[in-house]
Specification:
alpha/beta, Arginase, Chain A, 10 helices, 32% helix
Length: 319
């Protein structure tokens, strides 16, 4: 059982629309807090989108997701899991980025996650654009490469943008493999779709043994079948989960920088996360929620719910 300090306040005591917004109304326990070392899973915001190549705005994602996450209650209605009773969970705050210096921001992100991991905390992140995952992986995979399950409409395996820029939200997993952070034989990308400039990224995937599951295959086989294969690919070793909100069809998640039609619906968006049960998850993120394109707030609510589902999987495996 978790410490009651880490439980969200009952809505009968503090309405969900009141109080300072934290992820899922959890206590704010930043590095240096007296209870920092007691946290099992830390929810972290990375308000940064300097890797964005087209429509910006994901730097505002963590703040909107925090607000939407006040709708999360104590128990998962589908699985019955009560994560806040199984784990000490807290909002660790935001990594403070440098919005005018990409390299400095990545160093800041990595340093924040090293401190988190050194305290024995498993990180659960709200981004930020998808480049945010690279500096997180530099911390999570510092001692050994990890497996990766990626939900996305894009591979993010491109080599460079705009005359040689190696660090954008379209390149993080190319860099992570080159840096030895990911074992490509334990990597699967699910939901890939959309128009293409060429096949460079898919050729790289094929050459390195990365399993790529296009959205057409996902729809033909169904989430349960696809996730069974994903678990087999990841195996029993340490595995990182990265979830780009543009995995979901823009009819259900319009608030993102690079939407692609033809994706899963919001129920399937949750179903695939439940299919992660049993894996050795050493960290996870949900990225690319962009409030300027999310007039209704529905994308942020879906993102917050995905984070809750990820937390429930971590809690189930902890039990």
């Amino acid at each position: 059982m978790s410490d009651s300090f880490f439980h969200p306040p009952p809505a009968s005591d503090l309405p969900r629309f009141a109080g300072v917004a934290t992820f899922m109304r959890l206590p704010h326990v930043p590095p240096g807090h007296a209870r920092f070392g007691d946290v099992d899973v830390g929810l972290i915001g990375v308000p940064w989108d300097s890797g964005t190549s087209n429509r910006p705005g994901a730097r505002h994602g963590p703040r909107q997701v925090r607000d939407a996450s006040t709708m999360m209650r104590a128990q998962n209605g589908a699985t019955g899991i009560r994560p806040f009773e199984a784990l000490n969970c807290a909002d660790l705050g935001d990594v403070p980025p440098n919005p005018v210096d990409l390299d400095d921001s990545m160093t800041r992100i990595t340093d924040f996650y090293i401190a988190t991991l050194d305290a024995g905390i498993t990180p659960l992140t709200a981004g930020g654009d998808h480049l945010s995952t690279l500096p997180i992986l530099r911390a999570v995979a510092a001692r050994r490469p990890v497996g990766l399950i990626q939900f996305d409409s894009h591979t993010d395996l491109t080599d460079s943008y705009f005359g040689g820029q190696k660090y954008t939200h379209g390149t993080p997993f190319r860099r992570a493999i080159e840096e030895g952070l990911i074992d490509p034989r334990r990597m699967v990308q699910i939901g890939i779709r959309g128009t293409m400039y060429d096949t460079e990224d898919r050729d790289f995937a094929d050459a390195n043994g990365i399993r790529l599951i296009p959205v057409e295959e996902f729809h033909a086989r169904g989430p349960a079948n696809v996730m069974a294969e994903a678990r087999q690919i990841a195996g029993s070793g340490p595995t990182y989960i990265t979830y780009d909100i543009d995995f979901v069809d823009p009819a259900f998640a319009p608030g993102t920088g690079t939407p692609e039609v033809g994706g899963p619906n919001s129920h399937q968006a949750l179903e695939v996360v439940r299919g992660l049960a049993g894996l050795d998850i050493v960290g996870a993120d949900m990225v690319e929620v962009s409030p300027p394109f999310d007039a209704s707030g529905g994308t942020a609510l879906l993102g917050a719910t995905i984070l809750f589902e990820l937390l429930c999987v971590m809690a189930a495996d902890n039990g």
